[in-house]
Each structure stands twice: as C-alpha cells, then as structure tokens.
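Hi support team,

I'm opening this ticket because the web form for multi-chain structure prediction keeps timing out on my end. I have pasted the exact lines I submitted so you can reproduce it. The total is 442 residues across two entries, so I didn't expect it to be a heavy job. Is there a limit I'm missing, or should I split the entries? Thanks in advance, R.K.
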Amino acid sequence: MSRSMQPLALPQVMLAVLRREVSLAMRQKGEVLTPLMFFMVVASLFPLGVGAESNLLLRMAPGVLWVSALLAAMLSLQRMFATDYADGSLEQMILSSTPLGLLVLAKALAHFLISGLPLVLIAPVLGLQFGMDGRAMGLLLLTLLLGTPTLSLIGSIGAALTLGVRGAGVLLSLLILPLYIPVLIFGAGAVEADAAGLDIAGHLSLLAALLVLSLFFSPMATSAALRISVE
Amino acid sequence: MKPQATLTFAKLGCSKGGRELFRNVDYTLSSGQWMYLTGVNGVGKTSLLRMVCGLASIGAGDILWNGQSIHKQADAYHQDLCYLGHLNGLQESMTVTENLTFTTALAGRSITERRIRDVIGRFGLHGRSGQLVRYLSQGQKRRVALSRLALSPARLWVLDEPYVAMDEGGVKMLADLIADHLQHNGLALVTSHQRVPVGDIAPQMLELQPS
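Hello R.K., no limit was hit. The queue was backed up. Here is the completed structure from your submission:
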C-alpha cells in the first residue's frame, strides 16, 4: 500500500472531482449542447416574436439574453447530483474523509464550466441579432462571466434539496428562480445602465459580492441538503 | 498491523415513520472480531448499518468509536470506515480504473494504474480495467465495488448484504478478504441472509428483535 498510494492534498481531491465531471460531460455531449441550443433558440425567438423594430430590440437585449441564459443554466441543474444519488456515489462522497462542502464546491464549479461558460461565450454572437454594439456585448460578456458561477452555486442548493423528489424539475425552478432575481437585476441592469450613460461600478461590485457570498454559503447549504437526502 | 480499535453501541434505538424498530441495543466489537447482524426482514438491519456509517442520524443512545461518539469525530472516523451498501457507488459511464481512482481520491490518496490492475485481477477481473462499468455484469460490478475494500486502509468495514449477486468463487474470495482484514486488527459488520463462514473466526452474533 505504501508506494503505490500517495496522500493527496485537498485541492487535488477537488481537482479529481472536477476532472471526473468534465470528462463525464465530454462523454455525454448532449448534456453540454442541450442548454446551449436552448439558449440560442429562446434568445432567437424574441426578435421573431416582437418584430424587427431595432430600437425596441436593442433596449430589450440585455434583459432577454440574461433571462434566456438563466433559464438555460437551470435546465442542467437537476442532473448535478441525480446520477450520483442513484448509483451510490453520493453516499461514498458523504462518507469520504474530504469535507463534503469542498466536493460540492468542485461540482458547482464543474457545472459552471460545462453549462455556464459555453453560454457566456456564445452570448455576444446572439447579441448581434439584437444589434448590440461592441461595448455593450463586451459588458454583457463580463456580467455573465461574473453572474453564471453564482447561478451554478445557488442552483446546487436547489438540486440537492429536490433529490429523489418526484417532479423535481418544476419544483427546482420554483425554488431557485426567485433566488436568481438579484443576479438578473444587477447583471442585465449593468448593461442597460451603461447604455444610458450611467456609472456601472456599483452593479459590477454587487455581482461580485453575490458571487463571493454564494461561494461561501452555498456549499454549506448544499451539503446539509445532501445529507438529508440520503437519510 | 493496524492499531487496536473498538466499536460500541450504547442503548442504541431506532424508529422509522413513527414505528420503533429496535431499542436498547448494547454491544461492543473489538479489533479482530466481526459482527454477524441478523434479524427478520424490516427489523432495521440496514438502518442500523447506516447509523453506524453516520448516513442516518442516531435515533436513541449512541455509537462510540474508540470510546468517543462518532458524530464528535466525523472526519477521523470516516477515514477509518469503508461502507458497502446496496448500491455499488460506481459511475456507469466511467471505466473500472477511473471509478477506483476516483474513490481512492475521495479518501485523499492517489493510486497507480498498476496497483488497480493488480487488485481487480485478484478479484477475477483480469484485463477489465479499461472497460466501462456499464458493460459489466451485476456480479462483476459487485466485485469492483468490493475491490474498494482491498484498497482502503480503513479499520472498520460495514458490509450490507455483500454476497448478493456473487458466484461461489466470489463469496469465498470475499470471506477470505474479510478474514485477512480481521487478522490485521480490522473490524467488520456484516449482514447477510447467507451464512458464510469467515475463515475460522467465529462471528459475534447480534440478532435484532422487533420491539
């Protein structure tokens, strides 16, 4: 046992979780592509539905893109712990000597990389449909980059709370969407405020503060919910 | 040789859905001993094992590891615990090697591929290290899950129906593995409907009575 098994530091254990999640997602590409396609389709429906009046579209753009991104990020939340719960891996994670909060944090981070980051990267392309200019698109990218990790972190609480519940998908959205409101307000608000020529430092600071708060508190809440769900 | 250890149940009780399953169970298990937990269906064997693991909260009384409540030393206790429940804890879309590398990483250790090949070879899974778990049979999946035991430095093994889905050779192999574990100062808690002898080590019987 001595030489073939070396001790791992906590960051290395978290990295192992992260790598497992990402490699699993790469094997089930549908899971990465579904939210992305959903985002693209929903954001494209608005110009079709509201008409091609460019001023109206441009004013709506930040809000529409943010709401679409938020719904798309929520689509894949349910699967965050579902397979681990079904196959018993979750029990093993809870029983491991690594603090559960850190494992959960790694899983939420993986969710951001798999479901959130692709949305962030494609958003400027969709912004073109709404006639956004370069500055607005850059700002949209920045707010999404600050906001989507928060969505994954808060979402992990809902995913853990609805584990093993029938009709979990709808319940999950009812639980989580209200919690997403502050992120939406400051995310979409920053782009709008900038277009109106206002200072946006406050919006960005609040988005960052929300991220820091959820980084700290959501792993605790998620761990507690996971412990209840396996009991 | 691992250091000596004891597991103690002190007036342990459990109720589920408002119905009392068992109560006032007093018991002590020491290094080198194994407990054979029996009782009719629904008497609470699995519930008791899940309480021992800390997966379920303790209804009444306490469970002590080396004289201290398990919930007061959760991290240290979990390092000393290896649990095999009804679920194998294997991710179907990953290979045998990936699964075992991940579970050892969870326990805070890295492992070489060579060592994994050795261990699963001992469990009759030669050349299967690169195969997706999805394509293994029930019995083979159980064997992969059991190889976690061989890779774990834990002193306390908690095994819930470990012989399910195993063929005769597998049953014998697991019994030998447990016997070897006990000889190195390990402890084991086993529930099973099959009475399988563990080497020549007599079990400490605990029969749960419905209250």
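A quick check on our side: The mean pLDDT of chain A is 91. Let us know if the file doesn't open in your viewer.
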